[in-house]
């Protein structure tokens, strides 16, 4: 695909979707900015009705259809945010929609998409199988295929986020955008560079799926693995989006799973904002290399907020562990009356809050006249933890920090 898009396409998309979608907030994030040494603003695409930026592109595509295309209906392949965006707006516009999902798609996602009015077809063991089947159905039934990123109307729709962002914060000099297949950054870079040619555009990929970066470097594409950023876990960049990114994006960087987790945690605890892994990828890039953004006026796109509640709970707990606010200590005590009471008294005096206590005395690796106590504690920070350990050891209780708090 060689089709490209222009600022006029993005502006036309903005006119087309006006009145259908509310403007998403562009908010300052001073505490996060202080961490990175820059002025930071967040474009909250997570605030759309279905929780992601995908509504912009899907709606622009649907509104561009001719009458006969609307009557025939549309089809899309997605197991995530694109599915909900197409289903939501197709139903609202009275267009019949079919969404093809891989057979392994969790039932909750199937149910959510169906509740938005789409017919869901489960097919294939991979996303590629589902995409091929969707194309086949589109041809057989005369449906319009709505691609998640490799479509000029979709990319132009995503680009409207740039127009809004620069209108709200005109002095931005850097724009940081997550990259999966490239639809969001292609649209946003097209608009941003046309409106403000000197702006720096940085794309972000997760280290497990750096397909766009590899393609730009002329390297063989090698992707795979488990990531918290499912929304940008794309194995190949778009044929339309790749040349746009090559022409307009200043740099594409990778971020690790640890940085993605940290970004989700920081957004939740410091900004009081729920973001999915892909939605936090832009912040992860800033936190990973603050020197590259130091002193700049940086705009970050929080592209989505649809994170599984169990994953979010784990990320928050792991963040508390990382900060030393929840720890598990293993304390050796003599197997004698009053020893455990002495331990708990010392911990309380030192300002630690005991969450759980597990007392071990029957295992062979513990001397018969000794016992071990595993104590899960709430603490202030890592310095407090180290002070606790020193206090316990000075009181005659050998203490070690356990890395697993589960």
UniProtKB/TrEMBL annotation:
UniProt key word Glycoprotein: no
Superkingdom of this protein's organism: Bacteria
Gene Ontology molecular function, alphabetical: L-serine ammonia-lyase activity; threonine deaminase activity
Cofactor: pyridoxal 5'-phosphate
One Pfam family named in its UniProt record: PALP
Coiled-coil region: none
Keywords from the named record: Lyase, Pyridoxal phosphate
Domain ACT: 328-406
SUPFAM superfamilies with a match to the protein in the record: ACT-like (SSF55021), Tryptophan synthase beta subunit-like PLP-dependent enzymes (SSF53686)
A single GO BP: L-serine catabolic process
Reaction(s) catalysed by this chain's protein: L-serine = pyruvate + NH4(+)
EC number: 4.3.1.19
Annotated family: Belongs to the serine/threonine dehydratase family.
Matching PANTHER family: L-THREONINE DEHYDRATASE CATABOLIC TDCB, THREONINE DEHYDRATASE, MITOCHONDRIAL-RELATED
Full protein name: Threonine ammonia-lyase
Natural source organism: Azospirillum doebereinerae
